[in-house]
Write a structure and sequence with these properties.
This protein is of the alpha+beta class. The protein is built from five helices and four strands. The strands form two sheets. Strands 1-2 form a two-stranded antiparallel ribbon. A two-stranded antiparallel sheet has the order 3-4. Strand 3 and strand 4 form a beta hairpin. Helix 1 packs across helix 2 and helix 3 packs across helix 4.
Length: 170
């Protein structure tokens, strides 16, 4: 709103008129780091870098033999790892997922790869099954199903027939 004190025929008001202008909403804050295809390419690079590596080092030297230590450095794809790669926070990834459908597909691929790796590597013993179970239940809604029979004590339930009382006898 502003006060106009001169006549302006092109705007249709005269001296002493209070004018209201429709303003467009200005974007406030830091500009987004999302850069379309470049961001999607960085997601693909991150996923390709998520490969576990064995590290081996010389532990002890003996007269007749040496011992070596072999440790698995796990590079499981995670939202946190991707956020670090893109130099943003996880909340930003979740906002981008809502705003950009192609980015949402990339995050879905990340979760699929995470699930596949967790299942296969915990089954073959490379990953700790307890930690894998925790991540699978938290991120992929996979829970251990326990069936409990609280009605029959494990015995089969016999069928029964219900006969309605004869209304004429009442």
């Amino acid at each position: 709103m502003w006060w106009h004190d001169k006549e302006s025929p092109e705007r249709g008001f005269s001296c002493g008129t209070i004018c209201l202008m429709a303003t467009t909403k200005r974007k406030v804050g830091r500009p987004t780091k999302y850069d379309g295809q470049k961001t999607l390419d960085l997601v693909d690079v991150y996923l390709s870098e998520c490969v576990d590596k064995y590290e081996e080092w010389h532990k002890t030297r003996g007269e007749k033999s040496d011992t070596y230590e072999r440790v698995l450095n796990i590079e499981l794809p995670t939202y946190e790892g991707l956020a670090i790669k893109l130099d943003v926070v996880v909340d930003t990834l979740l906002e981008w997922r809502e705003q950009h459908p192609k980015f949402s597909v990339s995050l879905a691929k990340l979760l699929q790869l995470q699930k596949k790796v967790l299942v296969s590597k915990s089954l073959n013993g490379e990953y700790n099954p307890t930690i894998a179970k925790l991540i699978l239940s938290a991120n992929h809604n996979m829970v251990e199903k326990k069936e409990m029979d609280v009605t029959s004590g494990g015995k089969p339930i016999e069928g029964f027939n219900y006969v309605a009382p004869d209304e004429a006898n009442n």
